[in-house]
Amino acid sequence: MIKRSIAAAVGVAVLAATPGVDGATKKTITLGDNYYSPKRVTVAKGTTVTWRWPGFEEAGDVHDVKLKSGPKGVKKFHSEGAATDYEFKRKLTVPGTYKIVCTLHEEMTMTVKVRK
Ligand SMILES: [Cu+2]
């Protein structure tokens, strides 16, 4: 019984770590007041990251998503400022570390690591 549950857990872990077809994976980051959640993520190359602002009920301050620093050759991106019901997506195709900041709250930061 114990052995079986360990095997099941390992199976799930392996599945979760495997990118989808053509490495097409997705990851969603939620914006809060004043944070990104999760604050650190590691994704496969080619993952489309979606930053999602809260719905109307949880609306807070205005936030944005700006690439402060990224791997060499990656064009900087900067979303619009929004408080609620907004989405910003970027497909991250270059491996490396992407540092994200909200230009309205300098302590509001996050890091995306893209694996090779
Ligand atoms: Cu902010």
UniProtKB/TrEMBL annotation:
Quick check: keyword Oxidoreductase in the entry? no
Q: Does the keyword Zinc apply?
A: no
Which domain of life does this protein belong to? Answer: Bacteria
Keyword terms, alphabetized? Copper, Metal-binding
Q: InterPro entries this protein is in?
A: BlueCu_1, Cupredoxin
A Pfam family recorded for this sequence:
Copper-bind
Task: Cite the SUPFAM superfamilies for this sequence.
Answer: Cupredoxins
Q: Name one GO molecular function term.
A: copper ion binding
Using the record's annotation, list all stretches that form the Blue (type 1) copper domain: 30-114
Protein name as it appears in the record: Plastocyanin
Source organism per entry reads Solirubrobacter pauli
